[in-house]
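Researcher: We're teaching a course module on how sequence relates to structure. For the next exercise, students receive a sequence and then see the predicted structure as tokens, so they can try to spot secondary structure elements on their own. Here is the exercise chain.
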Amino acid sequence: MATQTETEAFAQRLRRALEASGVRASPTVLANEFNLRFWGRSVTPHTARNWLLGKAIPTQDKLRVLADWLSVSPDELRFGRQGVALKVSEGDATIDAMNMADREMLSRYLTLPLNERKTAREVIKALAIAASGK
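Model: And here is the predicted structure for the students to work with:
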């Protein structure tokens, strides 16, 4: 049985994964979106609420569906960051920057020809400048 701290940490990771995927952390939204992807017995908004509030952790089969949908590894979602993570400095904060979607994007980037990599770097640089307001 998971401890209170484990379930709360899971809830935090789930909310971060939802936010990173552009999904509102609402029990109803989570339950509806999850049920579209899960072939077993559907979950209720109450169950999804318990996941979001750190009162329960989904079973492994449900965890796999959540992880696949949110582009994170099941282990990362359930237990937190595993292995070596790339650290990126952002102002005074250092953040773990490599979730599963980021690793997939980086893998695709590395398959590009050098001139297309340069273009991708320039686009990312321009987006970062625009986001910083400079």
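Model: If you want an answer key for the exercise: The radius of gyration is 17 Å. The chain has a mean pLDDT of 84.
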